[in-house]
Specification:
The chain is built from nine helices and five strands. The protein is mainly alpha-helical. A hairpin with a 2-residue loop joins strand 4 and strand 5.
Length: 206
């Protein structure tokens, strides 16, 4: 998935891993994605307001859960650094190339889309998050519906009311490079992930 270049001649991307490496007592290196370590680094860093950064992190996590992104590591999110003003701000979400099952081919789509069990497996079991919980890749469904994480619950409240499936379906329809089979699959899996993950948690947190 490509996105518009949001840098400028005076700004560069600084990934979260680079900032995390500067936190001397961080429990792991910059690319370590243990959730507790990430949240600890967010609170200790001084590049931007910690509260704003934690909200951004959980917004990103919920969005990644919705689109099934399995590769949100510390090198593909972070900040924009302005060289002229020596200021940093949170960068827009970028690098979502591992979302929406990019490697699934038409033959597998035919098998998956005709089976409730196969579709449900791609909500409840796969993909998992690159964020680790006690050393294991987090299960999006379990993490969100457990309501265990206050920051995640708040992100659910912020994001779910703005998810418009009609607009998303229209966007999918406008992608000429997709076959009708691919479009049908994307519409179905996005709708299912919204209903079974986001919508399941939303009534409990709002």
């Amino acid at each position: 998935m490509a996105c518009k270049d949001f840098t400028s001649p005076n700004t560069t991307i600084v990934d979260f891993a680079s900032v995390k490496n500067q936190i001397i007592d961080s429990a792991s290196n910059g690319y370590g994605t243990e959730l507790s370590d990430i949240l600890d680094t967010i609170q200790k860093q001084t590049a931007v307001d910690p509260k704003e950064l934690e909200e951004h992190f959980w917004n990103m996590f919920v969005t990644d859960a919705f689109i099934g992104n399995w590769d949100r590591h510390n090198g593909n999110w972070g900040f924009l650094y302005n060289q002229e003003t020596d200021e940093m701000k949170i960068a827009p979400i970028f690098d979502c190339g591992s979302a929406l099952f990019p490697q699934i081919d038409d033959e597998l789509i035919k098998k998956v889309i005709s089976s409730k069990a196969e579709m449900n497996a791609r909500v409840y079991d796969m993909p998992t998050s690159a964020i680790l919980v006690n050393g294991k890749r987090g299960n999006y469904y379990q993490m969100i519906t457990s309501l265990e994480y206050k920051g995640c619950n708040e992100a659910i409240k912020r994001i779910v009311p703005h998810v418009n499936l009609e607009e998303i379906n229209s966007l999918i329809d406008d992608v000429e490079q997709l076959t009708q089979l691919q479009k049908d699959f994307l519409k179905k899996i996005i709708k299912l992930r919204k209903e079974l993950i986001l919508d399941k948690a939303y009534p409990e947190v709002k």
